[in-house]
Write a structure and sequence with these properties.
outer membrane lipoprotein receptor (LolB), chain A, 11-stranded antiparallel beta sheet, OM_lipoprot_carrier_LolA-like, mainly beta, signal, 197 residues, globular, LolA/LolB/LppX, Outer-membrane lipoprotein carrier protein
């Protein structure tokens, strides 16, 4: 029943902003996630990505608040750099460079800085597991543009980003699973300079 109501809310486009309607414990967890994401000095990890075509790719994940970079090694070298409202993918296998706006892309919900899950963002779901926590977020004024789920390990009150799941406006699903996560890594800003092209 809860999932059916969530789907109806997303399809209707009438979501309210923020997370005031959530139970107090869930609101506290959303605040913890905001503080964690805004406080990351630098995070790097190995990643495996599952895309809409059921293909699998992988490589190195780098994140600082407001910026993300994926260096693919499988199935072939590619660089994805996202931040400041734009995403650039340089496919070194084909030579193609793709530019996308983050305005209507679920990743844009992660790359606002500072991150605040209120105002123009709606928290649609908070889930707790054994040593895990995840939240799902969407654009409050147009939730049909996509949904992003952020997954964290949550051990002794310490959060660590371990995955992203998303669905875009065309109902394409993607998932990124992180491993060997290192936090507090110094990452030079030039790493997040988009590829030329």
């Amino acid at each position: 029943m809860k999932r059916a109501l969530l789907v109806l809310m997303l399809l209707s486009g009438c979501a309210t902003s923020g997370y005031d309607r959530l139970p107090k414990a869930d609101q506290n967890d959303v605040h913890r996630i905001e503080a964690y994401l805004n406080g990351i000095q630098g995070l790097q990890a190995a990643f495996v990505q599952h895309g809409p075509d059921a293909g699998e790719s992988g490589g190195r994940f780098s994140y600082i608040p407001g910026h993300l970079r994926l260096d693919y090694v499988v199935p072939h070298p590619m660089e994805l750099v996202a931040g400041e409202g734009h995403l650039v993918l340089d496919d070194q296998g084909t030579g193609a460079v793709t530019h996308l706006s983050l305005r209507h892309n679920p990743l844009g919900l992660l790359l606002k800085h500072p991150i605040r899950f209120d105002g123009d963002i709606q928290v649609t779901d908070v889930r707790h597991g054994n040593g895990s926590l995840q939240i799902s977020v969407a654009q409050a004024d147009n939730p049909s543009q996509g949904l992003l789920t952020l997954q964290f390990s949550d051990v002794n009150g310490q959060l660590s980003l371990i995955g992203l799941q998303g669905v875009d406006a065309r109902q394409h699903h993607f998932g990124v699973l992180l491993s060997d996560v290192k936090q507090g890594v110094v990452i030079v800003p030039s790493v997040f300079t988009p590829p030329a092209g």
